[in-house]
Structure formats: structure tokens, C-alpha cells
Amino acid sequence: MDWMYTLSGFLVGLIVGVTGVGGGSLMTPLLVLFFGVSPATAVGTDLLYASLTKTLGGWVHSKRGTVDWKVFGLLAMGSLPAAVVTIALLKYLALDEKTLRSLVTSVLSVALLATATALLLKDQIKKLGRRKDGTVYELHHRYLPAATIVTGVIVGALVTISSIGAGVLGTVALLFLYPRMPSVKIVGTDIVHAVPLTALAGMGHLALGTVDLVLLGSLLLGSLPGIYIGSHLSAKVPEKVLRPVLAVMLLIIGLKMVFYK
Questions:
Q1: Which one of 34, 74, 192, 213 has the largest count of C-beta atoms within 10 Å of its C-beta?
Q2: Does residue 25 contact residue 109 with C-beta atoms inside 8 Å?
């Protein structure tokens, strides 16, 4: 079975390398639906997997100067405490396996459907932020810090329970809040923010005993070369083709997760 995990890691890594999204959105449901891994263990393992695979991307963006560190700080101010509180609540509530499975799969299915919708409507979402004369709607600068922190709280809780939300949903939120920020900076800031968030949430799951380290190693063995190859292929595959395909894939997986028992 280990080689199947490695192959799955390679394929998911390839998709992440080409599209920039899809890590948690694909890996966690794949582990649950295809390999029969318990939802909580799939989430915990995927969080550590995401933190390790995104570290390289975050380092590249920081070296290129495509990270807004002020926005990163505001997001982290909300997301990191939210991750700690969510882990503490999971430990305090000590949910039985059936209830925990139900909670994780419910949040997971909602996150998948929201991610698929955000991918499909990304262009329309950008247009929503513009007036007829081409200028952009902007939240008053007085409220921006608070709105960014609140976004961090929501993303932090969502990621900790489902391992999904730090990528596409975080990017869409930043598009709304900072319409003038260049796309490359939004992506860079979102990736760098995902690194400490997934690491902290993953360590929390490790403490709860919902991380499979052998599984993690098998996934990384395949995903790292997959991401490397995918990143070199990304320039040759048009985003307009990939995005709808990925969105439909996530939509189908999300609907399957709704009826998962």
C-alpha cells in the first residue's frame, strides 16, 4: 500500500505544481474515500504534509519580494490563535470517533464545495470588486485590519478541522479585501501564511494522535518530485483549461463527501 500512497502523493503534487492549488482539497478526500483513512487522521496528516510542501513555495515568494508581510501578520494574528483554540476544543470535547468523523466530513464537504465554487467563479468575483468605470470598490482602510484578522480566524478554524481553506478560499478573501494588490502578491502572501498555520494545526493534530507519520513519509516521497515537475509544466498548460477541470473534480468529490458514511 505504501507505493500507492507515494503514487497518490506524486499525482497530487503534480496538480499542485501545475495549478498552484488543490493540495488539501484533493489529498484529504483521496485518503478518506479511496484509502479508507479515518477523516481525522487524513486531516491531521495532510496538515503536516501541506506545511512541509508549501515551505519551499513560501521561501521562493519571500525571496522574490512577492509577500505583503503586513497582511501576513494580520492574517496570522487571527488564524494561529484560532487553530490553537480549535485544537483545544477538539481535545476538551473528546468527541467519540463517530461524532468526530461526522464533524470532519461535514466541514470537509462544505469546504470542498466552497473551494470548487470559488475556482469556477474566480473571474466573476474579480469583476464584482469593480465599478462600471473600472475603479475598484475598497473597504475603508480603518476597517481593513479588523476584517483581515477576522478572515484569518475563519480560515484558521476551517483549516484546522478540514485541512482546506488556506489556498483558494484564502486567496479569494484577499482578492475582496485588497483588490489593488497584484495577483502574484496575493498568492505569495497566502502561501506564506499557510505555512505556519498548517504547521501549527498539524502539530496540534499530532498531539491529539490524529497523524500517521508513516503515511506522511510515503506521501512526501511522491509529492516533492511531483511538485517540482508540475511547476516546470505550469507554463505550458493554460490556467483557463485547468481551473474548470479542477473545480468540477472538487465539486464531485465534495458531493461524495456529503453522502460519506
A1: 192
A2: no
What does the DSSP 8-state code read for residue 241? H
Report how many domains make up the chain. 1
How far apart CA 35 and CA 48 sit, in angstroms, is 18
188 grid coordinates: 505569495
Q: pLDDT per residue over 77-101, tens digit each?
A: 999 999 999 999 988 887 777 777 7
**Taking a C-beta distance cutoff of 8 angstroms, is the pair 48, 202 a contact?**
yes
Length of the chain: 261
3-class secondary structure, 214: helix
Amino acid at 167: G
* C-alpha cell read off for 44: 491531521
What pTM value is reported for the model? 0.83
Residue matched to cell numbers 503534487: 13
pLDDT in tens, 140-153: 567 888 999 999 99
Give which of 36, 86, 17 is closest to 212, Cα–Cα: 36
